[in-house]
Amino acid sequence: MSTESTPVELASLADKRAAGFGLEAPFYTSPEIYEQDLDLIFGQHWIFAVAEAEIPDPGDYVTVDLGPHSVIVVRDDDENVRAFRNVCRHRGSRLLGSGCGSIGNIVCPYHQWTYRVDGSLIFAESQADTFEYDKFGLKPVNVRAVGGLVFLCLADEPPADFDEVSQLIEPYLKPYGLASAKIAHQTDIVEEGNWKLVMENNRECHHCDASHPELLTAYFPISRYEAEDVPPRLQQVYERYLEAQTDLEKAREVIGFPNGDICQLEGKATGFQISHLPLDGAGASFGPDGQQLCAKLMGSIEDPRFGDLSLHMQPNSWFHFLADHAVVFSVIPLAVDRTLVRTTWLVNPEAVEGVDYSVESLTSVWRATNDQDRVLVEGTQRGVTDPGYVPGPYSEVEGEVDAFVTWYVQRVQANA
Where does the record place the Rieske domain (predicted)? Predict the structure, then answer.
């Protein structure tokens, strides 16, 4: 763990960060600052954990590891989402060792203390008659399901603004029916880079036209440009984007979908952004030239040409919701220079693999994009460890990277 001087060092470095510039090398390379990130960021804020679709039935669970913390996210017998410390109240044994599964009760493998999926203790062998079962239930963790997405917070007093954020987000998510969706596929990759570099890379598409050819068959690389900033080489693409944006606005009106983007990426504990952008080509999905990938649409969506509803949540997640499927991303730090990126594809619960969709086609674009991003992040990690690295200024189209770094610095200053 960190030394006594580390919080002061971290706060001092945060205070030195120049507005509009990147972070200094220790933010990406220092084991002590990494430990502080686990404490101040992942230990104090709402973290995206799983999609509700990963735990569809009572007894279904997923374990989430955040540094030294392990959390069980489980659906109880009343179909509520619960979260508990993955630690037995007897002698501290880890309760569930696998990443996911289904159980009737939670049974400690050491001495068989047994808990219901609501966390209550129901069996503890050889205890005195005066033993009070109700005092030794599993330790709960703050958990919230928002529109089919499950967030947890390890802090005793989580950021209070999450209620406000939830109310803003849920109307956008509701039409997609995420809570009752089906998991079509899930992949894990480990990127040899600091978690902040993973998030920074995601927060811009400045690199997309050079690095993501598969993604650009459907995804406009100029959605964040103002008209006067579009470079000549992208002018025709920008005009096509404006036409698609007009069609998307009409599709929203038909079903009464919320109109207007929301950007609150900094200045508050629970930073987020939600935006609804058209897709290129056929405008339906991430298939070749924007073609639809699943025959059955999500939730109550009626028009396949419904673009990409994109949600960014600080500090560890981003999401893409389309008419025919959703793609959910979570970022979990593993070490100062190693990060787990988990990608989950969701489809309509009635969609049949091999009939309505193929896993290969559904996942092709983002599997390629994830691998391309992995290479970019790993190259940047090598660069920031070089003695010649000096933080540079962000471009005019990297505002969301600046917002992420600004949010991070603000949260460090607030909690250090």
Answer: 47-152
pLDDT at 135 over 70: yes
pTM for the predicted model, two decimal places? 0.94
Tens of pLDDT along 12-24?
899 999 999 999 9
Q: Which residues pair with 310 in a beta bridge?
A: 275, 320
- Helix 399-415 × helix 6-16 angle, to 10°: 140
d(CA 224, CA 278) in angstroms, rounded, equals 12
- List the strands of the sheet with 149-153, edge to edge: 47-51, 149-153, 142-146
Do residues 357 and 184 make contact, with C-beta atoms less than 8 angstroms apart? yes
pLDDT grade for 97, boundaries at 50, 70 and 90: very high
Angle, vertex CA 157, rays to CA 152 and CA 161, nearest 5: 75
Q: Which domains does the chain have, with CATH numbers?
A: 47-146 (2.102.10.10), 161-415 (3.90.380.10)
Residue at token pair 């979260």: 83
Burial of 134 from C-beta contacts in 10 A (0-12 / 13-18 / 19+):
exposed
The number of residues in the chain equals 416
Residue 9 forms beta bridges with which residues?
none
27 touches 380 (CB < 8 A): no
pLDDT in tens, 140-164: 999 999 999 999 999 999 999 999 9
Angle between helices 6-16 and 31-40 (to 10 degrees): 90
Mean pLDDT score of the chain, rounded to an integer? 94
Identify the DSSP state of 203. T
**Residue 97 identity (one-letter amino acid):** G
Reported as a pLDDT band with limits 50, 70 and 90, residue 4 is very low
Whether the Cβ atoms of residue 135 and residue 38 lie closer than 8 Å to each other? no
pLDDT value, residue 224: 61
Helix extents (H) in 224-333: 235-255
